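residues and backbone:
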Amino acid sequence: MLTSGRCPLGLPALETDRLARIPIATYRLQFGPDFGFVRARDVLGYLQHLGISDVYASPLLMASPGSTHGYDVVDHSRINPELGTAAEFASFTKELKRRGLGLLLDVVPNHMCVATHLNRWWNDVLENGPSSPFAGYFDIEWAAPDPSFAGKLLLPILSDQFGRILEAGQLRIEYQDGSFSLVYADRPLPIAPKTWPQILEPALVALQRQFGEDAPPEVALLESILTAIGYLPPRTEDDPERIRERTREKEVIKVRLAALLDESDLVRSAVAREIDDINGRPGVPASFDRLETLLLGQAYRIAYWRVAADEINYRRFFDVNELAALRVEDPEVFAAAHEVILRLVHAGQVTGLRIDHVDGLFDPTGYLVALQEQCHRAVDIPSHVRPRSSVADGNGCYIVVEKILAENETLPTEWPVHGTTGYDFLNLVGGVFVDRAGARRLQSAYQELTATAQAFSEQVYECKKLNLRHSMSSQVAMLAGRLDRISNQHRHSRDFTLLSLHEALIEVIACLPVYRTYLNPASESLSDLDRGWIYQAVALARRRNAAMNESVFNFVGSVLTLNFPEDLTTEDREVRCDFVLRVQQFTGGVMAKSVEDTAFYRYAPLASCAEVGGSPDDIGVSVEAWHRHNERRLNTSPDSLLASSTHDTKRGEDVRARIRVLSEIPGRWLEAFGWFRQTNARHRTQLPEGETPHVNEEYLLYQTLIGAWPFEPLDDDKGREVFVRRIQSYMQKALREAKVHSSWLSPNEVWEEGVGRFIERILAPSPENAFLQSFASLAQTVASVAVHGSLAQTVLKLTAPGVPDFYQGTELWDLKLVDPDNRSLVDFDVRRQVLDSLRNPMNGVELAARLLEQPGDGRIKMFVTHRTLAARQRQPSVFARGQYVPLMAKGPRAKHIVSFGRVLDRKAVIVVTGRLFAQLGAAERAPVGTNVWADTRIILAEGVPRGTYRDVLTGCQHIVERGRGARLQSAAVLGHLPVAVLELIS
C-alpha cells in the first residue's frame, strides 16, 4: 500500500521551486482516431481567442484500436499512435507553450483494456499464469473452489457455451513468428511453451517414423527444442530466479523454433499437419479432443461471456469484462503506469492531471500522496515540501479528481489535490433553475402515472442489490469468502455461515449512502464521519432484514469500521485491514453502476436532475443554498473545476436547461403528457409482457425530445432521419441501463424494436400526425425560455469560485445526449467563424439585442461566454481568490434574482442573473427591462466597493453611490440581457 511517506519512484529531488499552474478556464477535447494532435493543434488559436487558458485532454496513452474515448488503455509506456506521431505530439505541446496554454491530462490509474493482444502485460499473464512478472499488476484471485481451475484466469469471451464453440471449429491454433496462439474471433491468445509438445512431439514422431536413422539434421533440431521445453520451470514456480530463467529460456526457444520453421519446409509441413489435425473437424466431436486437452493446460480458461457474473476471478472496472483492474497501490505497478505521464510533467508538456474514478483505488490517499510527491520531483519541488501543504501554498502539480460527493460530503482533507472535476457544481448550478414547488408536483404526478410509490433512495437500494446479485456477483462472492475466513479467526464469530455473511455484506453495501468510505489503518487518524456512514448502513440493513440474526450485521459493521478483537495476531489484523480496503474499493463501482447506470434510467420525474452526482429526489436549490456552497468551495477548494457538461453526463447542459423549464409549467406539461400518451396510443405495441413503450419509458422519451429538439424545424428528410436515429439509440441505451424490460446482459430485442417503431411513427411528418405539430409547438416554447436559463447558467459557472470547465462544443448550444452521442466530432470551423463574427463593430447593446432576437444559432451563448472569459483573463486574481459576497434582492421579482460580488482589495465584479424565466413570461418576450423586473432591487453589502461599474457584456455603465443602502436596479442592470457581469472601473 502507498502511504504518505513512501515514494515508489526514485526520481531525485532538485533544489528549485515551481508554482502549480492553476487554470483560468479549461476546455475538454476528446481525442480519437478522427481527432488527433494535428487537428487539436489547429484549434488552439480559436481556444485562446475564446478565452481558454488550458486544454483538458482525454487520456492520451495507447488505447484499444479505434477507441473514441481513451479510457481503454493497453500500453502505459507510449502515447497513442492513432492520435499522431511523436513529432506531431511534440508540435502540439510546443504550440500550447507558444500560446501560453496549459495541458490538463486525464489519467486512468484503475484499469487496462484486456480485450486485445496489444496489452503485453496481460498477454504475458495469459501465457505464464501466476509466474508471470506481470501477474501482480492485476488484481487476480488465483485460488479457486474447483481445484481443476486453480491457478487459472477465467476469460469470459465466448459468444456461446465452450463445447458448442469448440465443436463448431471457432477455436483454432495458429503459428506465427516462433509462437503458437489460440485464435477466436480474430483475437489471438498465447499458448504456453510448456504445452507446445502436444503439437511438436507428434510432428517429431511422424518425421522419425518417416526417416528412421536417416533423418535430416532439422529433425534433431526439433528434438533439441522439445528437450529445452521440457527443462522449462513450470508456471507454478514462485522462486524469482527460476521465474527469470523461465522467462529468458522460453524466448530463446521461440527464436530457435522460428529459425527452424523458416528454414525447413520439412518440419514446417509436419507441424502444419499437426495444427490442422488438432483444430478438429466440425461434425466430428471426437476430433476436438486434442484441442480441448491443449486448452486445459493453459493458464487461462476461456468461457461463455455469461459466466463472468458468477465466476470471473479478476477485478474489473465496474462489470466490464474487457477492463481489468490494476494494482496501482503496488510501487512497481505505480511506476510502470505513470512513467510517461511523469515524464510529460517533468518536460512541462503536461501542467495538470485529472484522476479518473479515484474511488476505485485501493488506497486513494496513498495514491494521491505518492502521485503528488512524484510530480513535485518532476517539476523540481524540494523533497522537504509536504504534499498537502504544498497544494495549499500553490506548489506542485494541479490535480483534480473525479469524485462524486454525496450531500454534506467533502473531499478528505489529507488528499493533496485542488478539487474535483465539478459534478458537485453541475448539480448545484442546475438546481438553482428548478422551481421546487413545481418539481414536487411533478414528483407526485409521476409516481401516480407510473404506479410507483418508491422514493429514489428505494430505487437505488433495489438497483444495488440487483447488480450485486447479478453483474457483480463474482466480486461479492470473493469478498464474502474472505469475510468467511475472517470470521473463523475468532470464537465469537466462528459460527457465522458463508451464506449469512454473503447476504449481510450485500445488504450493508446496498444501504451505504455514499460512494465509499476511506478508513485506513495506516492513517494517523480514522474518520468518525466514515465510521458514521458505515454505522448508518448497518443499522438500515438490520431494519430491512428483521428475519436475519442482527449479530451477523454487527460483525460486518465491526470489521468494516476496523473495530477488531484485541487478541488477534498481527497477521489476522492485516487480513482484516486488507478486506476493509477491498470492500471500500468495491463500493464506489457498485454505487456508480447502480445509480448512474441503472436508477437514473428508471426514475425520472424531472430527468434533468437524474445526473451524475445528483438525485431526482432532492430537486431544486435555493438561492441561499447556492451562496452557502460557493462560500464553502472558496474556503476549501477554490481551484476545483466547475463543470456543466462532461463526456459522462447523461444529457447536455442545454438539454437539461430545457427539461428544467417543465418544473415551472407542471400543469401544462402534465396535461400535454396525458394528451400525447392518448394520441400516440395507436403506435404502441402489445407484447406478452406488456405494452411497449411502458408509461415510464414514454415519460422519459418525451422529456428527452423536449430537451434535444432542434432549434430549426425538422423539415428536411435527412435531418429528421438523423434526429430519429439519435433518439432511438438513446432510448435503446436507456432501456438496457434500466434493466427492467431489457438489459445489456439479456437484450430484449422485440421490446426495443417496439420502442424504436414508436419513436419513428410519432415523429413521422404526415398530415395525420397531430402529435408532431402539438409537440413541436411546446418544444419551441420551452426552448425559448431555456435560452435564458442556459445563459444564466453559463455566467454563474464563469464567475463562481473555481475553474470553469467547458466540454468540447458547448460554447454553442449543447443538445447532445448521453455517450456516444456527446462524443461525436465538433465542427470547430463553424465555431471559429461564429467567434470571428462577434468582432462586430456595433456597440454591445445593439449586438446583444440582435443576438438575443435570433438565439437559435448559438451566437448569443458564445457572446456571453467569450466576453465573460475576457473579464476572467483581465482580472484572474479576483475570480481565483476574491471574496464571495452574497447579494440580496428585494422587490416583486426578488426570487428570480441570483447576485453576488467577487471582491479583492479595490477590484470587484458584481454578477446578476435571472432565474425561473417561464414565470417571467420569457416564452413571449425577452426577460429584460422594466416591464419584467419592475422595482426589483439588488442591495449591495458593505464589502462591495462603491463606484462605477461597466457591464462586460453590453458596455453599459452603472454607478453605485457611496454610503449605506447602496443598490442596483434590476431593470437597468438586466435592461438588455437576462444576465450581467459588472466590472468596477473607477
In short: The chain has 34 helices and 28 strands. Confidence is low (pLDDT under 50) at residues 1-17, 383-389. The longest strand covers residues 883-890. Residues 120-317 form a domain with the Maltooligosyl trehalose synthase, domain 2 fold (CATH 3.30.1590.10).
